[in-house]
Amino acid sequence: MKKLRNLIIIGTSHIAKESVEQVRKIIQEYKPVIVALELDHKRLYALLHPTKRWIRISEIKKVGFKGFLFNLLGAWAEKKMGKMVATPPGSEMKQAIASAREIDARIALIDQDIHITLRRLSETLTLKEKWRFIKEVVTSVFGKRQELKFDLRKVPEQAMIKKLTAKIRKEYPSLHKVLIEERNEVMAKALYKIMTEVKKEKIVAVIGAGHEDEIIRLIKKREKDGAVF
Predict the structure, then answer these.
(1) pTM of the entire structure?
(2) For residues 9 and 31, what is the distance between their CA atoms, to the nearest angstrom?
(3) Cα(213)–Cα(168) distance, rounded to whole angstroms?
(4) Burial track 5-15 (b if 16+ CB lie within 10 A, e otherwise)
(5) What one-character DSSP code corresponds to residue 151?
(6) How confident is the model over 164-176, as pLDDT tens digits?
(7) What are phi and psi of 118, to 5 degrees?
(8) Model confidence pLDDT, tens digit, residues 32-65
């Protein structure tokens, strides 16, 4: 958990049982007026309405084939890991929504539209990065099982997160730029706007672990520069 004046940021793992409990506890303790989520409207709807449906060609056209493929494989791998620890992906977000309703807090969606993110991936992801990603996902699921260096039921330590982020930056520079750098900018801008609007009232933001420090740095930069919306 990180704090910046009236903002409390919870860094979570989307399949960690520990994150679900932490979200519940912190929202109950701080009773914020707004709970901000690392979601957009499309992902929120998909999270709350997890029905199977046929994939439409029009959707692939909107986001590009590479972006569509990345999203498909990523969701598949996350679902597989979620089954390993009996915690469905997005459980902490569902808990945040339930806890916000219990205290009559407003929900704010601060992430970039998923179609924009996937379209940007299609535009920037190189063939080398794409095939490396596919290979790593398939190997991790069907390959020889390796001993995990951290417990999937818990949020990884900061040292591990920084190591993984550095690996992504080195091996998947396009992925790092689109999924981390650009989305950090979007979420920091949204949170800065909310902080300005509610003044001293408390805000709890539930975002993936690893985003916290950079988002706080970007918010501070906006404050220093006197940024407008």
Answers:
(1) 0.79
(2) 13
(3) 17
(4) ebbbbbbbbbb
(5) -
(6) 778 888 888 888 8
(7) -70, -35
(8) 999 999 999 988 988 888 765 545 556 666 656 5
Q: Which two tokens stand for residue 139?
A: 């190997």
DSSP track, 82-142: HHHHT--TTHHHHHHHHHHHHTTPEEEE-SPPHHHHHHHHHHH--HHHHHHHHHHHHHHHH
Tell me the C-alpha distance between 23 and 89, whole Å. Answer: 14
16: nearest Cα among 151, 108, 113 = 151
A 10 A CB-CB count for 188 gives 22
Helix or strand run (H / E) with residue 165: helix 158-171
Q: Indicate if the pLDDT at residue 160 is higher than 90.
A: no
pLDDT digits (tens, 9 = 90+) for 59-70: 666 656 555 555
**CA separation for the pair 145, 154 (Å, rounded):** 20
Euclidean distance between CA atoms 13 and 7, whole angstroms: 19
Alpha carbon 143 to its chain centroid, in Å, reads 26
- Following DSSP, what letter does each residue of 36-77 receive, concatenated? EES--HHHHHHHH-----PPPHHHHHHH-HHHHHHHHHHHHH
Yes or no: say if 68 and 59 are a contact pair by the CB < 8 Å rule. Answer: yes
| pLDDT given at position 59 | 63
What's the confidence (pLDDT) of residue 182?
A: 94
Task: Give dist(CA 49, CA 47) in Å, integer.
Answer: 6
Average pLDDT, the chain: 80
